[in-house]
Write a structure and sequence with these properties.
Structural class: alpha/beta
CATH topology: Rossmann fold
Number of strands: 7
Shape: globular
Radius of gyration: 20 Å
Number of domains: 1
Helix content: 40-55%
Largest sheet: 5 strands, parallel
CATH class: Alpha Beta
Distance between the termini: 84 Å
Order of helices and strands: HHEHHEHEHHEHEEEH
Oligomer: single chain
CATH architecture: 3-Layer(aba) Sandwich
Strand content: 5-15%
Number of helices: 9
Strand order of the largest sheet: 2-1-3-4-5
Length: 263
Amino acid sequence: MRLIRCASLALFLLLGAAPLAHTAQHAVLAATPISRMDLPWWRKRHEAVLERIHHGRTDLIFLGDSITENWERRGPPTWIDFAPVWERFYGDRNAVNMGFKGDTSASLLWRIENGEVGGIDPKVAVILIGANNLGRVHWSAPDTVAGIDAIIGELHRRLPHTKILLLGVLPSERSPWVTETTRQINTALAARYGASRDVTYLDVSPVFTKDGRVDGSLFYDPLLTPPEPVLHPSAEGQARIAGAIEPTLARLMGDRNHLAEPR
């Protein structure tokens, strides 16, 4: 009888602990380096970044997902012609694009820990990450913030002289849950880094809103065939990001404000 009671207690504890174990594992995943090297295109891009940083000066790095990677795209059509905006704002700043489509905070953390910031000493690192935490894996706001914290901590450790410009997660129209979770993430990031001496935090969401709603005309997803929910800024939307962060970026870089120059 005692053996039965002990076995029942063990089973109860095991089942009762399962949700807690799942929650702990879930929280860890968002802040744990996760490789995507099994994807040939991802591996190739990672290797290209490593090649670039070892052959040329690097003063500015952009870390992120497809929204950051899009800076390399050229049109036509004009709504995905991002390269001219990049050239205007970053072409003379020895900038390196480290955006990988589909990346979560976990995959970005892996890249940071596996050579992408090795042997360089950039003046500024711009971080825009988190959209795929909400779309691909549905991690919560606390999980995503933990992942971003881990990224910042690793950058501070590996690039102690680099100033960090952290951008809030951009607005989208994927679902009410994503919208609310995005708000929670940005609120938490503002509370944590808004007065930080080590990190400059900017929420550029206002440049994408009109009359209190997301302005879909500043995103290219609705123009695709078939149309997709608002997520990726168009060239005009990306130009608005560049304009919104430029005064702060110029101050952190210690160079001129590119907004003051003619196009």
